[in-house]
Structure to design on (206 residues):
């Protein structure tokens, strides 16, 4: 039969073991709480850089050939015999525009009454084409827009068109003559008395 001292020692040991297991269970429960689980399972933020994507271009690719046309005077007065039309044909060389010489440039004047005039010239060394439009006998074009389209062509080079959507244009304007003011009324002259006549009168009286 155990003595009183040994029984007390066993009770103390059992109590300590029970407290140890309870403390361990409490730690496990706290470590598996909802906040800790949510923090542990949430993904860490990352930064991804995509390099070498050839499908996306920040700027549009320019066309290898381009052309344009413009009138030297967009509102010439009616009665002007000649109206200048300039056009230019260029290509890209190392990213810079360069004129195409020796190309055939054909301009078509689209008058408002439906008639057309056509003329062809050769471009200069810088790709410039200069046309002269005869407008002296087109009174029906007064205060109306006249379009000029241009077609460029050269063997071995892609052709280029300045169509109606971006054609050169001008409008003949009627000029009202200015009337100069004229003087009215009858001019009046002031006579100067003659001293000799006055002297003769005085002598006669004497």
């Amino acid at each position: 039969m155990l003595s009183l001292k040994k029984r007390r020692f066993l009770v103390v040991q059992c109590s300590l073991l029970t407290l140890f297991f309870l403390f361990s269970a409490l730690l496990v429960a706290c470590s598996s709480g909802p906040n800790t689980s949510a923090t542990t399972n949430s993904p860490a933020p990352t930064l991804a850089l995509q390099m070498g994507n050839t499908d996306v271009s920040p700027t549009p690719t320019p066309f290898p050939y381009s052309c344009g046309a413009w009138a030297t005077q967009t509102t010439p007065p009616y009665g002007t015999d000649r109206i200048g039309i300039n056009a230019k044909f260029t290509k890209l060389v190392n990213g810079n525009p360069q004129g195409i010489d020796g190309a055939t440039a054909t301009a078509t004047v689209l008058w408002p009454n439906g008639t057309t005039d056509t003329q062809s010239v050769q471009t200069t060394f810088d790709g410039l084409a200069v046309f002269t439009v005869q407008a002296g006998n087109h009174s029906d074009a007064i205060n109306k827009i006249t379009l000029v389209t241009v077609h460029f062509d050269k063997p071995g080079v892609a052709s280029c068109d300045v169509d109606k959507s971006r054609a050169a244009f001008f409008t003949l304007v009627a000029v009202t003559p200015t009337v100069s003011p004229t003087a009215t009324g009858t001019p009046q002259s002031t006579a100067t008395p003659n001293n000799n006549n006055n002297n003769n009168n005085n002598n006669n009286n004497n």
Remarks:
- The radius of gyration is 52 Å.
- Strands lie at 65-71, 82-93, 96-99, 104-110, 116-122, 128-134, 145-154, 157-162, 168-171.
- The first strand starts at residue 65 and ends at 71.
